[in-house]
Automatic annotation (TrEMBL):
Domain O-acyltransferase WSD1-like N-terminal: 56-258
Keyword Transmembrane helix: yes
Lineage: Eukaryota, Viridiplantae, Streptophyta, Embryophyta, Tracheophyta
GO annotation, biological process: triglyceride biosynthetic process
Leading EC class: transferase
Keywords: Acyltransferase, Membrane, Transferase, Transmembrane, Transmembrane helix
Enzyme Commission number(s) of this protein: 2.3.1.20
Organism of this sequence: Medicago truncatula (Barrel medic)
Name used for this protein in its record: diacylglycerol O-acyltransferase
Molecular functions per Gene Ontology: diacylglycerol O-acyltransferase activity
Regions that span the bilayer: 186-214
C-alpha cells in the first residue's frame, strides 16, 4: 500500500543537520501499549489520513553537492510498517520486547526512504495486549512537535470525528505588577537585568573551566572508549501520570521538572548501590551514602525554548 505526495525540496534546519552528524545520530523511540490486538490494515488506513499528511513523514534526504534537502516522494507503507511473526505463547514476552527494541541500536534507518518506522507486535505483555513501537529519526522533529502530531492523529472516544481537547496554559496574573509604581518597576527591571548578566557570566566561566580543566569522575555510568558502538538496552519503569501530576501541583513546577528529578534520583540510587557493593567487597566501612564526595558528572539536556501552549 502506498501514499503519494508531491512537492519541492526543503533544506535541512541547523538542528536537523546536527542530528545527522556522525557523532550525534539520534532517534526517537516511542512505545505504545494497546488494550486490544492491533489490526495492521486499520493502522495503514489511519496513517494515510493523519500522520502521512505531514511532509516530513513523506520526505527523504537527497544530497546535492554539499547541501542536503528534504524531498517529498511516494511512500510505500510496507517498507515502514513492520509486523513480525511472533509466537503468541512465547515465554517471557516482556524480555522479548526489550530485546526487540535493543536490536534497533544495531542498525540505522535507511536514508533512501523517509526516516521512520512503526513496528506492530501482537504479543501480550504484563502491561498491554499488543505493542506499537515508533522509531523516528530526531531530525523529523523534537519531542513537543512529535507529541503534538500524535495527538492530532487521535480522536475522542466520545466523538470519533472530533479532535482531542488540549488544555491551554493559564496565563500568569500580572495584576499586582501593574499596581507597582513606575519607579519600583524600573529598579526591579534593572536588578533583574544585572542578575541575568551576572548569572550568564558565571555559567559561561564555569562551562569553559569545566571543559578545559575538569574531567568527569570515573563512575559506573562512564563508559570506556568505543562504548557508543555497543548494543544498548532500554530499561523502563511504569509511573502513574496521576502521581506525577500530584508532585507537579505540590511543587508548583512542570511535568518535565518532575521527570528530570525522577531521573536524577534514579541515577543517584544506582550509584549509591554500585559504590555500596564496591565498598563491601573492598572491606571498607559503609556510610549512609556510598557515593564519593565532590563527584563530577556532566549531562546534555536538550530544552525546547519555543512556546508550546497546552503541551508541557
Amino acid at each position: 500500500m502506498a501514499c503519494s505526495s508531491e512537492g519541492g525540496g526543503e533544506p535541512l534546519s541547523p538542528a536537523a543537520r546536527l542530528f545527522h552528524s556522525p557523532s550525534f545520530n539520534c532517534y526517537v523511540i516511542a512505545i505504545i501499549g494497546c488494550k486490544t490486538s492491533i489490526n495492521p490494515q486499520v493502522i495503514r488506513d489511519g496513517l494515510c489520513q493523519t500522520i502521512l499528511k505531514h511532509p516530513r513523514f513523506t520526505s527523504k534526504l537527497v544530497k546535492k553537492g554539499r547541501k542536503t534537502r528534504w524531498t517529498e516522494t511516494t511512500i510505500d507503507l510496507d517498507n515502514h510498517i513492520i509486523v513480525p511473526q511472533i509466537d503468541s505463547k512465547i515465554d517471557f514476552p516482556d524480555r522479548f520486547v526489550e530485546d526487540y527494541i535493543s536490536n534497533f541500536t544495531k542498525t540505522p534507518l535507511d536514508i533512501s526512504k523517509p526516516l521512520w518506522e512503526l513496528h506492530l507486535l501482537n504479543i501480550k505483555t504484563s502491561n498491554a495486549e499488543s505493542i506499537g513501537i515508533f522509531r523516528i529519526h530526531h531530525s523529523l522533529g523534537d519531542g513537543t512537535s512529535l507529541i503534538s502530531l500524535l495527538i492530532a492523529a487521535t480522536r475522542k472516544t466520545s466523538d470519533p470525528n472530533a479532535l482531542p481537547t488540549v488544555p491551554t496554559t493559564r496565563k500568569r496574573d500580572d495584576s499586582n505588577v501593574h499596581n507597582c509604581s513606575i519607579i519600583v518597576s524600573f529598579w526591579l527591571s534593572i536588578l533583574w537585568g544585572l542578575r541575568l548578566i551576572w548569572n550568564t557570566i558565571v555559567d559561561v566561566l564555569l562551562l569553559v573551566l569545566t571543559i578545559l580543566f575538569f574531567k568527569d569522575t570515573h563512575t559506573p555510568l562512564k563508559g570506556a572508549h568505543g562504548v557508543e558502538l555497543n548494543t544498548k538496552r532500554f530499561v523502563y519503569l511504569m509511573v502513574s501520570m496521576d502521581d506525577i501530576k500530584l508532585v507537579k501541583a505540590e511543587m508548583k513546577t512542570t511535568i518535565n521538572d518532575v521527570l528530570l528529578g525522577l531521573t536524577q534520583a534514579g541515577l543517584a540510587r544506582y550509584l549509591n548501590r554500585e559504590y555500596g557493593v564496591k565498598n563491601a567487597n573492598d572491606g571498607a566501612a559503609m556510610s549512609k551514602s556510598g557515593i564519593p564526595k565532590n563527584i563530577r558528572l556532566r549531562a546534555s539536556i536538550l530544552v525546547n525554548i519555543r512556546a508550546s501552549p497546552g503541551i508541557q
